Amino acid sequence: MQNPVIVALDVPQAETALQLAAQLAPVVGAFKIGSELFTSAGPEIVRRIRGTGAAVFLDLKFHDIPNTVAKAVAAATRLDVQMLTIHTSGGTEMMRAAEQSARQTAAQSGRNAPLVLGVTVLTSMDTNNLKEAGITADVGHQVERLASLATNAGLRGLVCSPLEITALRRILPAEIQLVTPGIRTGAEKADDQKRTLTPREAIAVGANWLVIGRPIYAAPNPRAAAEEILTLLQ
Ligand code: C5P
């Protein structure tokens, strides 16, 4: 089995991120760089983390017209990231353009295409928030609808909450990669995550990758915390 643990480097400074990456690279599968770190440290932080040999998940959740998203995906692909995110609510054409851009740009540099992951409904949204935006479906149905749209548009993976995995596994082709945050071992506090699964539970119901932030980077010994999580997975 691949190492499924992706550590979210949700820290504002490049130096802190690099220290964490140096400690953790030997024991985790990848690092997630999100909007906070990318906005403060720029593309150079992606190059430096890639320089440690670790895989990078660039989580900037692109959401724009197809042409703009395609160009952003091309830029991310040239940075040699292994995964990146786009919003599925950007529509079929936008998702197709993103996937095509990832494949074409990667082929030009002789690399494998990064996994373009679709984000469905943000977990901070509930059915009421959807209603305010004119969407009458409940969250669960809207997630399933957007997930099907994404895979029909050619995306090979999705980000989902742990509690959506079972329903998505029922309706999606088995090869679709599911990446899930909201992982807690039970030993730490849940922070602001309201719906969590343990690493083992998430894999058991069908997740391929686990995004774990605070339980690792905010632990007194991040490397020991990551190793403990891997033990729980064995
Ligand atoms: O610290 P924690 O383990 O909660 O970090 C989870 C990571 O996954 C954060 O980077 C957060 O932005 C991201 N995320 C999430 N819930 C989602 C989507 C992404 O927690 N629904």
Query: For the report, how would you describe the main beta sheet?
Result: 8 strands, parallel, barrel
Bound molecule kinds, no repeats: cytidine-5'-monophosphate
Note the gap between the termini.
Answer: 10 Å
Strand order of the largest sheet: 1-2-3-4-5-6-7-8
Superfamily at the CATH H level?
Aldolase class I
Task: Tell me the structural class.
Answer: alpha/beta
- Which fold does the CATH topology refer to? TIM Barrel
Number of domains: 1
Runs with pLDDT <50, length 5+?
A: none
**Radius of gyration, taken over Cα atoms and rounded to an integer in Å:** 17 Å
- The run of helices and strands is EHEHHEHEHEHHEHEHEHH
Total of helices: 11
Shape: globular
Mean pLDDT across every amino acid position: 95
Q: What CATH architecture label applies?
A: Alpha-Beta Barrel
Q: Which range best describes the helical content: under 10%, 10-25%, 25-40%, 40-55%, 55-70% or over 70%?
A: 40-55%
At the first level of CATH, the class is Alpha Beta
The count of β-strands is 8
Strand content: 15-25%
